[in-house]
Design a protein that fits this description.
The complex is a heterodimer.
Chain A (H helix, E strand, L loop, with lengths): L12 H10 L30 H13 L8 E2 L12 H7 L2 H4 L11 H18 L3 E2 L6 H16 L3 E5 L4 H11 L5 E5 L10 H7 L4 E7 L11 H10 L3 E6 L17 E5 L15 E5 L2 H4 L6 E6 L6 E6 L5 H4 L12 H38 L16 E5 L7 H9 L3 E2 L2 E2 L10 E5 L6 H14 L5
Parallel strand pairs in A: 1-12, 3-4, 3-5, 5-6, 6-7
Antiparallel strand pairs in A: 2-8, 7-8, 9-10, 11-14, 13-14
Helix pairs in contact in A: 3-12, 5-12, 6-7, 12-14
Chain B lengths: L52 H13 L21 H7 L2 H4 L11 H18 L3 E3 L5 H18 L8 E5 L5 H8 L3 E5 L9 H7 L4 E6 L12 H10 L3 E5 L12 H4 L3 E3 L2 H4 L14 E3 L11 E5 L2 E5 L16 H38 L17 E4 L1 H7 L3 H10 L6 E2 L8 E4 L7 H20 L1 H5 L12 H5 L16
Parallel strand pairs in B: 2-3, 2-4, 4-5, 5-6
Antiparallel strand pairs in B: 1-7, 6-7, 8-9, 10-12, 11-12
The chains are: A alpha/beta, B alpha/beta.
């Protein structure tokens, strides 16, 4: 193996020697002599030996090739990360080396590109959510929910946060992790077993002068829309609580935005906007709000549009940094520093390509495909679909109780047909019996849905 | 030193919009369209641009040309470890075999990725000298939060959480340390550094008490100096009943040289996007795995990646876990890049990283400390991967501050150092060249500093008015953040703000 390494220019012995001579040091190890002997490593790291690029690449590719992706098997998994088409132009844009190899834009004059892209991202997310302001990203929907609860508590000075019963398990657990040290209690509000709608009586009973925020998801984790969202907001606001709505951005070309439903804070997962699933990460936490009072408490980085000092051109820079950890330290609104900037650029590029019409058309297509799948599956004996009566989008619950086959068994058998079934819900929601959450998007063809239905027939023992 | 950044005067993307243009094509509907109750529908379509794909691509490529990145030259932001990002790492993740994997697929269909994550966990544990790793945190600060939550869980289990409500941080710490500690419900006790910029053992003793939950420290510290008293520090913290947390932002200099675990640290976070060369993407995504001692393993976030025989799986049965800190399992596409990077470096390559990053920093420190108006505080101390210069003398003598100087560097096509941090150095310029910068680039950096310094002493206005060669000239920051003029979206100004 060569002494010099391709990523380390000054590892070339001649260069290294010259530099050492220049600063009057005989050996690099002299620069480490302030590390006590008892700590210094006296043997090499137990790692594999260095491999060349070709070997590395082949080995990693070989390892990855052992996965079966959603291109190899027809998958109906969603529930927090969803399969959507990523236009080639988006992949190309985020691969631009000037974007991908840049840091947080602490020197705005030389970082206008990423700053303008982030400002436009904030604008598009605010538009999509129907809100006044959006930050330039958080880690994911789960942490955005945690931050929303903490922000609600800061703004109102209260310590209870109300959440719906049907919520994605990771999201709920993340919320609890974020809330516990802040002394915020999470209170669950019931949902109608027939329609999925938030039970207004239960909400009235639980909302109080201790309530910092009332959170709903629209569409819900189980795919149904909340018919009474505005009324929920009214109840929250009457008690002086904030109204927080979580939304899937692919629904927002079609369905009412959080802003139209009077939300104070809107959050969501931005992965469907031009970001690949990547086995669950990186993701993109959407976070928007309205009003100056809330803006000052918002977590995360914000980009503003301003002018150059000489007034000759528009310019972009980070603003309201006094909320952030590098200025405010322990009094910051959040500890976040590194965020998901490049995923936000992908989302912005995606939204720019789609435009308002594209997003609406996408919504209609997902709605048509998922409704078709619901109807076809609902025609099978013993299967109940959808389990809730309300309007659905993209996802729906399939219940197998009438078939005598457990949901996990259904999935095991579907695998033999080259199909990955939906998320089994029994552990989290035992009251739903043997059921699973299915996701259908624009990526699913009618043929694939028909194949699912045929395979399902076989799996549940109905004669094909 | 001739440099001129592209100036496209590119309009906002919404200003390029023309009604009826589209940049997308979707499959024709094969399934019947569906009518929806009007109350559920959106009343007004979002105001998004209407553009062809050509225009969208041109817009972003123009913007990218107004952005400086590691691929263009030195990016010596201290504590940010802006090293070169191998192209190979970006290539190996651009495959449907990773991009199109759903996190809830059956374990048997994802054995390849689980094995990568399992092996990477093991490698990281070995590198930092601790027992077990969670790959879940999305960033360094997220790892700090997870680590502080583990401190919480540990003290709660010992029945001491009520009384142990303080986390000690040095005054030279990264801002995320106190912010993360506070977010995890602790009070922050700031400890003054000693005359040499290191932990003052006396100050530490008086900061520690029965209320101490832990100490957060980076080593080498933010001045780039190794805390030689680290074993004594660890002993004091442990004797007080606290845990020792390692902020891994400065791990680069320690690779293969010394392990945080051997220094006595109980919890470590690792900035994958710094030390392990994954691209920072203009601010993210990064990845901030944490490693812990055997005693703290039980508290790691759920799930962990495990192996049974030759099968890999996610383990959710962890009753003492702090729970979930995010959705799903981590920033996987970032982690796979790091896996490829470590494989390509190998054990000897990683040692070279530490050696040359320290050599480059010391070389640059020596040269820059000779520049008029700049001083290297604590000159007798060795530096590791980074160092902090003070421009206080220059500011006194010429009125040119660290901020001015850094703006002038931009004019020479050199990214500025981190300025005004750490807070304990007046007019601080915090510089981390990394191991991936050539001697020629370092020498060019020295020339740029020297030129800016000469200008400061002869024509200070020239420096104070910089930059001129960047996409825009000096920005009106006051206007940007003033409630009357602040604009955060293209919708309108923020009158209500």
């Amino acid at each position: 193996m060569m002494e010099a390494h391709p990523y380390i220019p000054n590892s070339a012995p001649v260069v290294k020697e010259e530099m050492l001579r220049d600063i009057g040091i005989r050996d690099v190890h002299a620069l480490f002599q302030d590390i006590p002997e008892t700590i210094r490593m006296n043997s090499a790291l137990e790692l594999p030996p260095r491999r060349c690029e070709m070997e590395t690449r082949l080995q990693v590719e070989d390892m990855l090739s052992r996965n079966s992706s959603t291109r190899d098997i027809t998958s109906f998994l969603g529930g927090g990360v969803w399969p959507h088409y990523v236009p080639a132009a988006v992949d190309e844009i985020v691969a631009r080396s000037e974007f991908i190899t840049s840091y947080t834009p602490y020197q705005p004059e030389i970082s206008q590109g990423i700053l303008q892209a982030m400002f436009e991202y904030q604008s598009m997310i605010a538009e999509l959510m129907g809100m006044e302001f959006a930050n330039s990203s958080l880690y994911d929907w789960g942490t955005a929910l945690g931050e929303a609860a903490r922000m609600s508590a800061r703004v109102t000075g209260r310590d209870e946060f109300l959440v719906p019963h049907y919520i994605q398990p990771d999201r709920l657990r993340t919320l609890k992790t974020f809330s516990e040290p802040a002394g915020i209690r999470i209170v669950e509000v019931g949902q109608d077993r027939r329609t999925g709608a938030i039970l207004k009586d239960d909400l009235q009973q639980k909302v109080s002068s201790n309530t910092a925020g009332v959170y709903i998801e629209n569409p819900s984790y189980l795919g149904f829309l909340e018919p009474g969202a505005k009324g929920i907001g009214e109840i929250a606001h009457e008690k002086g609580a904030l109204f927080v709505i979580g939304a899937d951005p692919t629904s927002l070309g079609l369905f009412a935005s959080p802003g139209e439903l009077d939300a104070d804070i809107a959050i969501g997962e931005g992965q469907p906007l031009g970001n690949h699933m990547n086995y669950g990460g990186p993701l993109l936490g959407l976070f928007a709000c309205r009003g100056a009072r809330l803006l000052r408490q918002m977590p995360g980085r914000l980009i503003g549009m301003t002018m150059t000092r000489d007034g000759t051109s528009k310019a972009f820079t980070m603003v309201l940094q006094t909320r952030e950890q590098h200025i405010r330290r322990e009094k910051a609104s959040s500890n976040i520093c590194t965020n998901e900037a490049l995923c936000a650029v992908a989302a912005a590029a995606y939204l720019a390509l789609m435009g308002p019409r594209g997003l609406e058309e996408l919504g209609k297509l997902i709605l048509a495909n998922s409704t078709y799948a619901m109807r076809q599956l609902g025609g099978l004996d013993g299967i109940t679909v959808p389990v809730f009566e309300g309007q659905h989008f993209k996802e729906f619950v399939v219940r197998f109780d009438g078939t005598g086959v457990a949901a996990s068994q259904v999935n095991a058998k579907l695998r033999h047909h080259g199909i990955q079934g939906g998320i089994c819900l029994h552990d989290q929601f035992p009251e739903l019996g043997q059921s699973a959450l299915y996701c259908v998007t624009e990526l699913h063809t009618r043929e694939q849905i028909d194949q699912l239905v045929s395979a399902m027939k076989v799996v549940i023992g109905e004669r094909a | 030193l001739t440099f001129k950044q592209a100036q496209w005067d590119e309009p906002l993307i919404i200003e390029r919009s023309s009604e009826g243009r589209v940049g997308f094509s979707l499959p024709s509907p094969e399934t019947p369209s569906v009518n929806v109750t009007v109350q559920l529908l959106r009343k007004r379509l979002p105001k998004l641009p209407e553009l062809s794909e050509t225009e969208v691509v041109q817009h972003y490529v123009r913007l990218s040309q107004q952005n400086y990145g590691v691929d263009l030259g030195i990016y010596p932001l201290g504590s940010c470890t802006m090293k070169y990002n191998p192209k190979m790492s970006d290539r190996v993740v651009a495959t449907p075999k990773l991009q199109d994997l759903h996190p809830l697929q059956d374990a048997e269909s994802v054995q390849g990725i689980l094995r990568i994550l399992y092996e990477l966990s093991g490698w990281l544990a070995e590198i930092v000298g601790l027992n077990k790793v969670s790959l879940q945190p999305a960033a360094g600060a997220h790892g700090e939060f997870a680590g502080a939550m583990i401190m919480r869980a540990y003290h709660r289990r010992n029945g001491e959480l009520e009384k142990r409500d303080e986390i000690v941080v040095p005054d030279s710490a990264h801002g995320t340390n106190p912010a993360s500690a506070a977010m995890a419900g602790f009070k922050v006790v700031e400890m003054p550094s000693n005359q040499e910029g290191c932990v003052d053992l006396e100050a530490l003793r008086s900061s520690l008490s029965h209320r101490t939950a832990g100490l957060m420290l980076t080593n080498p510290n933010t001045l780039g100096m190794f805390e030689s008293d680290i074993l004594e520090i660890a002993e004091l913290v442990h004797a007080a009943g606290g845990l020792l947390y390692y902020d891994g932002a400065n791990l680069n200099a320690m690779l293969g040289e010394a392990k945080p675990g051997r220094m006595g640290f109980d919890i470590v976070h690792i900035n994958i996007h710094k030390t392990f060369a994954t691209p920072h993407g203009g601010g993210g995504p990064g990845s901030g795995p944490i490693a812990v001692t055997k005693e703290l393993e039980r508290f790691l976030p759920v799930p962990t990646v495990e192996r049974s025989g030759d099968k890999y799986y996610l383990d959710f049965e962890r009753p003492d876990s702090i729970g979930k800190i995010r959705s799903f399992w981590g920033n996987i596409a970032v982690l796979v890049r790091a896996y490829a990077y470590i494989m390509m470096m190998g054990r000897d390559g990683l040692e070279k990283v530490a050696d040359i990053s320290v050599l480059n920093a010391n070389y640059l420190a020596k040269k820059l400390s000779e520049v008029r108006g700049l001083e290297l505080p604590f000159p007798e101390k060795l530096r590791k991967h980074e160092f902090v210069l003070s421009a206080a003398k220059m500011a006194r003598e010429t009125g040119v501050t660290a901020a001015h100087l850094s703006k002038r560097l931009l004019d020479f096509g050199i990214h500025a150092p981190t300025v005004y941090f750490p807070l304990i150095v007046d007019e601080a310029l915090m510089i981390e060249p990394t191991e991936t910068v050539s001697k020629q680039e370092l020498d060019k950096t020295v020339i740029a500093f020297s030129k800016a310094s000469a200008e400061a002493y002869t024509n200070p206005e020239l420096v104070r008015d910089a930059p001129r060669n960047t996409a825009v000239t000096r920005i009106d920051e006051a206007r940007a953040s003033h409630p009357k003029t602040m604009q955060l979206t293209w919708r309108r100004g923020t009158q209500s703000a």
